[in-house]
Amino acid sequence: MLDVVNLRHTYGEGPKAHQALGGIDLKVSEGELVCVVGPSGAGKSTLLRSIAGLIKPTEGHIRIRDTEITDTPGDLAVVFQDYSRSLFPWMTVEENVALPLRRRGQDRKARRAAAGEALNAVGLAGATGKYPWELSGGMQQRVAIARAIAYRPSLMLMDEPFGSVDAQTREDLEDLVLQVRKDHRMTILLITHDIDESVYLGDRVVVLSKAPARVAGELPVNLPFPRDQIATRELPAFVHLRAEVGRLVRGKEHPAAPATEEENLADAEDTSRSGERPAAG
Amino acid sequence: MTVTTAPENVKGDAATPRTPGNRWHSLTAVLTRVWLVPVAIVAWELGTRQAESFYFPPPSAIVIRMHELWFSGPASDLFLTEEAIENFGPSLGRLFTGWILACLIGITLGIALGRSATLYDYVNPIVEFARATPPPALIPLFVILFKIGTPMQLATIVYTVVWPILINTVDGARFLDGTYADTAKVFGLTRAQRFFRIILPSAAPKIFAGMRVSLSIAVILMVVSELVGSIDGIGYLILFKQQSFDLPGMWGGVVLLGILGYVLNASFILVERRVLSWHRRARQTT
Q1: CATH numeric code, B75-285
Q2: If both were cysteines, with which of A33, A147, B122, B223 could B235 make a disulfide (CB 3.0 to 4.6 Å apart)?
Q3: Which UniProt keywords apply (chain B) (predicted)?
């Protein structure tokens, strides 16, 4: 349903230009949960912002259900990392969730009902009348997820959604995403720098190289559902996949890595140019 | 704000029950804050009595004169005298009309300028120049342009007090948080929603700061314009009392304006606290 072809993006012009995306090809099928991992500064957010129509790519095509994307698509929701700035502090939790629904042509009553339902789905039925800043970080991110659910998008983008919460909350929210995806049959593209998270959540993990980012490799995740924070993570397959993804993220060659020769060459070139900068995981 | 479900608040209320000891505590707290006011008034009274100057009547004389002149009317008129009604009404009317007009102009124009970089680049130098012109210098012009009396006075007030509102609104609207803007775009908010639900509230703290400054300037300009060209109003009364050597009456006008300014500012802060309670409380919790 999502088709990204040879996407390139360069910030600025002339000698100061920074090429963030160096030709990305990516496909996401209907109902799939794809995780994109890459080292810090690899242009992961640039990729997400391009798909969301927040920036115009320098080159390449983005299609959703065979429709070329030039502006923000109408049925796309984003969960941002910075929940405290993505929820509006002057509105209650319910108003935040219901706000985008006006566009869906629902009347006030239907909007409230939809918001209540979505908040219920993320376990926040009791928080409708509260303000976002009265809630903990994890709960605020739940509200942001509820807003995305209520919006009923065909594609949900998540930009390091759990980057600013503690470990325990993070696990809860990961399981929430899996639940939401199952209950609402969502197609999700999730961006993260956390290798474990990408393997735990994804049907497929796409690894980006350092900037200018290309797809360094793709790994299908054939772990059984339902996934469990303890049991899944101790499966030999999980441990193996995590290592594979880790190698790809660090740009180390490995016989099992299904990257093409050209891409590996580009990667090697990149490393030699940028010196021995350690890639953050 | 209708319902506050903040657990902190609930706890806070429970922790401060209304006990006699507490009431005593808050009473002393108020006393320590305002004790200087009666002391200053007594000092003023004693000093002016000692000096026996015609130009500086004691505050008690001023208060008595104020009562005689303005607050000894019939109960049906809220104890206001005819002179009070004929002069306070027009003054307050001009003050509020001018201020509200300035708010409407300042906020509308300010958001337009703040949201359009091109417009801002074109208009900003003009704004900077216009606001640097001391408004009283333009009163002679306004006197010719508009009819003497209310139109000219309104022009003076609006022209002066629009700047703090405009500048603050531009500032508030220009620096809309990036994630707010992204969220609005991604979720396809309508133009009206963006204006009323995102841009206006996020700029509101700055807009209110500008409105508050403007309100006190509006009082000043109201008086200035009434001193220059007017047949009624508090400023006119002050001038008239001075010319008829009614010094306690003149001082009464000055005191009245002081009280008016104080009450206006306090009421505005009260309204601001209510409207922007989300802002204050959000900042306390993060």
Answers
A1: 1.10.3720.10
A2: B223
A3: Cell membrane, Membrane, Transmembrane, Transmembrane helix, Transport
